[in-house]
């Protein structure tokens, strides 16, 4: 249970297949201990966006109720992830002169240069979700991570700006409010940023890597170079597409297709013995029918290759292909499909690693699975943002979407661990 010296944080991952809430307790010195979690099948989500507010709210409430029950805390607010094809990102440059009497860079100058980087023209239906400083340039000296306190007359920033469609983001917030909850310290976070926080090693960010989170309905992509994020995107193919292909290709229902995929599926046809047979429950048949396992693998392999080709196209368009020395890191429930890392390595021509979320204190074995990477990351980001709160009591700013916590959040979340 929490005392006055600790605070409760909650990460809420609204996925296409499941909604997961993770509770944590943060001590006065900032240490996070995971208390518990709740999981509910998701309803009302289509391709990363809310298509039915009421159905989504019911699922959120169920996940939160479970998390409350097994962690013994009351949940009032959450840090939530958003994603979807509506998300776009771009790199922007900001520049200001330092007008401090002793030419010292203050937090005010840092805020101003980020505001300047945000001065981009975006369509009226979109809003800026994150402005993430990649590095600062102080009187021409680049690669500076913490310019506060330095002396200079000119401050510049290279920032990564993430935008999303206002109504889609509002519908996520409405579902949360409908479930009787508010938004807490971490605010609204782009899902791949949370996932990256939970799975990437500092060295991978430094050397350059692409993070691929294969979910149910979409695959989130985030690229890091020189320790900083430089590209975020979404590929509209993921685990459920594979399941549907199996259902159509073999003529089975979705449940049987999911079973075949998880029990017998592989993305590598080469490895299979051509004579191996598996029993399947064909649509409308009473008895199981044996089919070659290689047929299942061919269906899966084709879709997984297509998925990683689309990731590769994004890398090419973003111009980052040659800067990924640490390779590709695959996570998300869909990455559990056998052979995913090998397909990733082959198509992208990079070394590949399958990743689960970092082990936080108190975290149960059950959460040590790629499908919980986003939820764990959201909880970590919520914890890292508590310094915008007054530790002795209530939030310094109540509810709503925080804009001014973002810089601190990203600095903490993406700084070296
Ligand atoms: N062992 C496994 N083998 C193959 N696929 C698996 C396995 N376990 C989970 N999956 C797949 O993972 C997918 C769900 O992943 P995840 O829980 O990360 O998605 P989500 O977060 O709900 O969705 P999204 O991120 O698209 O909103 C499903 O398509 C499921 O079939
Ligand atoms: Mg997900």
Question: Brief overview, please?
Answer:
This protein is of the alpha+beta class. Helices cover 33% and strands 29% of the residues. The protein has a five-stranded mixed β-sheet, with helices on both faces. Strands 14-13-12-17-18 form a five-stranded mixed β-sheet, sandwiched between helices. A four-stranded antiparallel β-sheet has the order 7-10-8-9.
Portion in beta strands? 25-35%
Number of strands: 18
Q: What is the name of the CATH architecture of the largest domain?
A: 2-Layer Sandwich
The description of the largest β-sheet is: 5 strands, mixed
Rg over CA atoms, rounded to whole Å, is 22 Å
How many distinct helices? 11
Describe this protein's structure:
The protein is of the alpha+beta class and 417 residues long. It has 3 domains: 7-85 and 166-196 and 357-414, ATPase, nucleotide binding domain (Nucleotidyltransferase, domain 5, 2-Layer Sandwich); 88-165, Dna Ligase, domain 1; 201-354, ATPase, nucleotide binding domain (Nucleotidyltransferase, domain 5). It is built from 11 helices and 18 strands. The protein has helices at 53-71, 107-117, 166-178, 191-199, 202-207, 239-250, 254-264, 293-318, 340-348, 373-384, 406-414; strands at residues 7-14, 18-26, 32-41, 45-46, 49-50, 77-82, 88-97, 126-138, 141-144, 154-165, 182-190, 209-214, 219-225, 228-235, 277-280, 289-292, 328-331, 352-354. The strands form 5 sheets. The protein has a 5-stranded mixed β-sheet with strand order 3-2-1-6-11, with helices on both faces. It has a 5-stranded mixed β-sheet with strand order 14-13-12-17-18, sandwiched between helices. The protein has a 4-stranded antiparallel β-sheet with strand order 7-10-8-9. Strand 12 and strand 13 form a beta hairpin. Helix 6 packs across helix 7 (254-264). The longest helix is centred in the last third of the chain and has 26 residues, at 293-318. It is globular and about 85 Å long. The two termini are 27 Å apart. Residues 388-417 have low confidence and may be disordered. Magnesium ion binds at residues 15, 215, 332, 374. Residues 15-18, 48, 215-218, 238-240, 243, 258, 261-262, 332-334, 336-337, 371 line the site of adenosine-5'-triphosphate.
